[in-house]
Amino acid sequence: MSRAPEVLRPGAPWEKTGNASWTQCGHCANWFPVGGELLARPQVKLHCPTCHTEFLAADAARLIKAG
Ligand SMILES: [Zn+2]
Asked: Are the C-beta atoms of 48 and 25 separated by less than 8 Å?
């Protein structure tokens, strides 16, 4: 078993951990899944599907890496 890196509020729009990592957009606060290959390339910007903001993983509001 792996430890959860973050403790989230009840009602967060994701329910289970698995192969996907998750990040929270700093603009609209929506969570969306990101592939591990993106996180391995910190120069690649993530694209929020909700507000279409692009940001680096290092600038994400919060980030949960898959175990
Ligand atoms: Zn957003």
From this structure: yes
